[in-house]
Amino acid sequence: xxLADLVPKEAAYNYAFLDEQSKREVRRATLxxxxxxxYQVPFGSRELPIARGWGTGGLQVTMSxxxxxxxxxxxxxxxxxxxxxLNLRRLVERTTGLPTTDRTEDxxxxxxxxxxxxxxxxxxxxxxxxxxxxxxxxxxxxxxAATRRMHAEADYARAWVALYEDIVHSGTITRAAGYPAxxxxxxxxxxxxxxxxxxxxxxxxxxxxxxGAGREKRVYAxxxxxxxEPLAFEDYPFAVESMAGRVCERCGATGVYMDEFIEGEGxxxxxxxxxxxxxxxxxxxxxxxxxxxxxLEAVAVAVAATHRRVQTLSAAGK
Length: 318
Prior knowledge:
The protein is an alpha/beta fold. The chain is 33% helix and 14% strand. It starts with a helix and ends with a helix.
């Protein structure tokens, strides 16, 4: 007997881990969510080999959608190398045999935690968000039955009052990640804890955005070309985080979302949060590919234009 004989053989998994009935249930919930933008559809969240709160909702949505021919990308707060992203990607590979990628443009399904890639997504791509808290009214009302009634009646007065009180206390709207927005002129929704920088990318986007909350057992969606309007006042319009003057120390990029590093008394250093974009820019600079560099710089210009368009609508009260 050898040591290899003592190692238990790996159990055979169903395709994409979930049983077929569970995947059908998630797909039915997803279809309803797409039909009613921003509405939280309940579903029977299954047990997975990861803890609740670490992406089980988004993973179930992803596993119910993918099939032969798909390429999957998993990111964790902008990076493909995070522990959470690596473990989810390994589970997808082991249970489906599908290829995975770090390149945004090569993926057909992108599962993400708290970021939208800098490179614009195409109409043939789907982005799936991991959502820890799907209820946008939880910070003003803890009773689940009450929040459901408020959504049913479109009674969002208290949400507006909460923003007004924030301005009174702080002089501005301090809400950063997970900034509430109105979808299709009807439902207020939580865009997961993405930074305000990413929220305008959802407005009339050509791609399908799906949101899965495993712990809370909710799925919701923003279909392609659907309006996503951040809550704001005409005299206190929505604004994204300022990245003016910030340059990535690794690839030299500007105009994208940056991570800030402070070490002791030294100067502040910045690096692209989206590692796939940073790698692409770094490789293009190293290879002297000016065409590719210009293409990537155009991404930042397009993002800035998206920000201006949504901020203009916000200032106009539309």
